[in-house]
Amino acid sequence: MTFIISHGDFKLELSVLPVKELKPHEETLKQGVDELKSSLINMRLQHDPVIIDSKTKVILDGMHRHKAMQELHFKLILVCAVNYLDERIGIKRWLRSSRMSEDQLGKIARTLSLEEEGRYGQVMQMVDQQQSCLGILSEKVSYYSKPCGGKDKLKEMVRTFDQFSNLIGVRVEYISEDNIMQKVREGFSVLYTQLPSKEDVIESALSGRLFPPKSTRHTIPARPVAIGFPLEYLSLERTNSENRLSELLRGKRFMEMPPGSFYEGRKYEETIYLLE
Questions:
Q1: Residue 126 belongs to a domain with what CATH number?
Q2: Domain assignment present for 76
Q3: Cα(244)–Cα(229) distance, rounded to whole angstroms?
Q4: Nearest-angstrom CA–CA distance, 176 and 86
Q5: pTM as predicted
Q6: Are residues 52 and 140 in the same domain?
Q7: How many of the other CB atoms lie within 10 Å of CB of 21?
Q8: How many CB atoms lie within 10 A of CB 235?
């Protein structure tokens, strides 16, 4: 049983599905999962649905929410299914930014077998043209790797970077591509990785060879928010839970808010549909 929100000819299909049927394509951060678990326990609501591909049930947005529900032993979860192959759904990347000394940069470069290159713009170009698997950008000195030969090598190298950063106690911040130049000018280094494709995302989820946490960032034309589905309904049998969702949505309307709108302290790039 689904409830459809039409954003022009782009369909958002709300429903409940078994938690075990959803397929994450990247790993999660323990702190993020723990925070969501606390929020779920306190609010007793699933505030926003997990965004999934309608065909494969691969999670596009909401990996931490799914993991939190899984660890809290819920059988069902509220989802919004979309057609992932729709060209209006885009894929971007999160990038890792940190403040490392030149000595630390040299050590991680040697650990990852990277070559030195003074111009960070050249490293970005090499990575984007798939002549390099990843690079480390900084204002003074930058580094690049050999070609990947497959996304599994990229995943391995990013995990090594994360382990090294954790070992030396360097705080890693996740930034969008729009903030690269600002961070580099401020003295930070940026781990610049190849952009995954939609095919990479699906393959990662279906094979179980997940990307490291915070690897992808999907842009979707529209999404529903603030559904506020009571968690007690997600412990029911599926048919009963679907009936509860139908009762919650029956007779209600969704307020459309344009891209760039702020809701609960977050600025949304896409149109959001807010349950009134």
A1: 3.30.1760.10
A2: yes
A3: 9
A4: 23
A5: 0.93
A6: no
A7: 11
A8: 14
